[in-house]
Amino acid sequence: MGKTIFPSWRDPRWTGILFLGSYTVYALLSPGFSRRPEQVATGLAVCLLLDAFLARALWKVPLFPLSAVFPAFGMALMCDTPLVWPYAAIGVLAIGSKHFLRSGPRHIFNPLNFAIVVMLLFASPWMAIGDDRWGGYRAGAAVVAGLGLLSTFRSRRLDLSLTYVASFLAGAAVLSFVQDRRFLSLAAPATGAIFCLFTFSMVPDPATTPDGRARRIAFGVAVGGVETLLRAFEVRNSPFYALFVVNALYSALPPEERPAVHRGWAYPDSRDPAGGAILR
After folding, report:
1. Among positive and negative, which fits the CA dihedral 152, 69, 238, 136?
2. Would you call 9 exposed, middle or buried from its count of C-beta atoms within 10 A (0-12, 13-18, 19+)?
3. How far apart are CA 142 and CA 192, in angstroms?
4. What Å distances lie between residue 160 and 20, 43, 155, 156, CA to CA?
5. Which of 102, 109, 265, 270 pairs as cysteine with 278 (C-beta 3.0–4.6 A)?
6. Between 69-78 and 37-59, two packed helices, what is the crossing angle to 10 degrees?
7. pLDDT tens readout for residues 1-28
8. Which residues make beta-bridge pairs with 79?
9. CA–CA gap between residue 137 and residue 14 (Å, rounded)
């Protein structure tokens, strides 16, 4: 099968990993965050090992599972639970969705978002999502946003993230008018760290979002629009459900014409059975 293929240091995913990894370290060092080393280690081990195994078993490609680090760090930051097993479950769901729920050469759902939605629907007594562990510090959210801007710029998805933010704020304005509520209270989630992580790490996932600018903008508007509709009905954790729905709808559209290798997010030796590059 050949030697393991390691990513170049110029790979833009390293910026995203630095973005998430720095805050995972913060979570482990901060008593108020209540993250334990065994929780982070469990999620990381499950994601890395399962992704490497399935890449070899299903696609015959000996890739170093760099992309598996994203859901591993993301779950440590977003998913709040005192237990260890939910992190293993999230890892299995995230990596499993990446390899088994596919449309052509791409997986349909952002892996971590898929896992979070499933856990919220079926394991909510044991896991929650919330900003409370971040202590409400606006400075922390600002740093997350700054690193996220750099990460999405390098992955050429900054326009998508900014479009989603604009759509979210527009939706808050609409709800403020329709429901006679204060705009600032409806827009307040945008100042939280979870919102920044979702906006700059989960929404602009290159493997599950369009490449063309017009489609990227439409994608961001769609996520914000669906989220606004769900918020109107007071659905909790509406951003994750909105992205799940839009990912599913996007996968049903005719595929875009893509370059043979989408640099930074595919390896030249990574091919699906139909001959397309497998995005990692």
Report:
1. negative
2. exposed
3. 9
4. 19, 28, 11, 9
5. 270
6. 150
7. 568 888 888 888 888 888 788 888 888 8
8. 129
9. 26
